[in-house]
Write a structure and sequence with these properties.
alpha/beta, disordered N terminus, 12 helices, 3 domains, FAD/NAD(P)-binding domain, single chain, D-Amino Acid Oxidase, Chain A, domain 2, six-stranded mixed sheet
């Protein structure tokens, strides 16, 4: 049976598919534009990739995943049993077409476009989050915490200084930290650290899942509806409406937006669009109720993982595993994260068996840029997904830009970089 969504007081209706942090931002901004919104997800809000992120707004990550430099070291990272990159062999045949596009994204012109697109979103991310949260009374979820990036090897100091100069040229300020400064700021870190960069303007959230829960509560209080069902099809129909077919029936809306992360690909295919999105699996540990080991979010430049002190405890996030949507988690990935975390914070060894483990799916496109666009033929169907490692960072600004595109409003960003049919 097909149900037409009954809009409140004549308000136009909108469906948002995907109740992660980006879907919720999109739904809330739709409400601010006078739309009556129904949010769809196969599981409760915020239990996908939004649940397990590091909680840190990584605005300084302005390079795509595919560059000549990363491709040169990729084989070494893959072959290292304790490395940050994993390509499960059983998924490799399905992954090959994506990998070919990924290799092509390392061409100089492609890298420059990706850098431009990442910088534009990241520079606007914190102001966009404030514009979203403050009117809801949720501004205290965002904390200017600072962030430190550390190196262990003495021979990496020149690399660290070069990185600081490049960031400064992009308007990202850092402060140099020698070993003494690192130990003073983070007394429980291991003595093997050589140097670091401190990012004083960096932000984190108090707790990712608490943020998503608060956004969901605000959405419901503003008159939104949530349906915990799996969406099977998003289809344009007569009268310029959009049909949402799900596991319990069908509904019609005036507009629809797909924000389904790594699950967006099949919905896009049914709309006649081929989008090479891959499920990049990320792993995390959470040392519950552990407040002390770190004062600041911290990233290891050599080990390529991040640790963040959150309300729930210390979160350790890492691994880039191109393994698709169906494989079970690999226990050894958690063991690698434990090994790295204990190497930098020796005091964690006594608690390494009590930590919570989790794996989720990052939606990653070959050029590391998201899709923020509307359907080339159906102007009332929009898309916002594919923010890879920067989903939390870019959620609010992606939602803002999506609605500007949907309503034909000008932007300060070159939206061609995020076109759905750029591949």
């Amino acid at each position: 049976m097909t149900h037409r969504h009954v809009a409140t007081l004549g308000m136009p209706s909108c469906a948002v598919v995907g109740a992660g942090v980006l879907g919720l931002c999109t739904a809330i901004l739709a409400q601010r534009r006078g739309l009556q919104v129904t949010l769809y997800d196969r599981q409760p809000p915020g239990l996908g990739a939004s649940y397990g992120n590091a909680g840190y707004l990584a605005c300084e990550l302005i390079d795509p995943l595919s560059t000549p430099a990363t491709l040169r070291i990729a084989p070494k990272l893959w072959l290292d049993p304790n490395g940050p990159l994993a390509l499960p062999l059983r998924h490799l045949p399905k992954l090959l077409p994506w990998l070919i596009r990924f290799l092509g994204a390392a061409r100089p012109a492609a890298v420059a476009s990706s850098q431009q697109g990442l910088r534009a979103l990241n520079q606007a991310s914190v102001p966009a989050w404030k514009r979203l949260l403050n009117p809801l009374g949720l501004g205290d979820h965002l904390v200017q915490s600072g962030y430190m990036l550390v190196w262990e090897s003495e021979n990496k100091q020149a690399e660290a200084r070069s990185h600081a100069r490049r960031l400064a040229a992009c308007g990202i300020s850092t402060r140099w930290l020698d070993r003494a400064a690192l130990i003073k700021m983070e007394p429980e870190m291991g003595p093997q650290l050589s140097c670091g960069l401190f990012f004083p303007e960096a932000y984190r959230v108090q707790e990712p899942y608490s943020l998503v829960s608060a956004l969901y509560d605000a959405f419901i209080q503003a008159g939104g509806t949530f349906a915990e069902v799996g969406v099977k099809r998003v289809q344009p129909v007569e009268n310029d409406e959009v049909l949402i077919a799900h596991t319990e029936g069908e509904q019609r809306f005036d507009k629809a937006v797909i924000c389904a992360g790594a699950w967006s690909r099949s919905l896009m295919k049914l709309l006649g669009l081929s989008v090479p999105i891959e499920a990049e699996r990320g792993y995390h540990l959470t040392y519950r109720d552990l407040k002390g080991p770190l004062n600041y979010p911290m990233g290891s430049a050599e080990r390529r993982f991040v640790m963040t002190p959150l309300e729930s405890g210390l979160r350790v996030v890492g691994m880039s595993e191109l393994g698709g949507l169906t494989l079970a988690p690999f226990k050894k990935r958690y063991d690698v994260l434990k090994r790295h975390a204990c190497a930098l914070i020796p005091g964690l060894k006594a608690q390494s068996e009590q930590c919570e483990v989790w794996m989720g799916h990052r939606p990653t496109l070959p050029d590391s840029l998201p899709v923020i666009d509307r359907h080339p033929h159906y102007q009332n169907i929009g898309f916002a997904f594919g923010n890879q490692h920067l989903g939390l960072t870019q959620a609010a600004v992606s939602a803002e830009l999506l609605w500007k595109v949907m309503e034909n409003e000008p932007t300060d960003v070159d939206m061609n970089l995020y076109r759905v049919n750029r591949f």
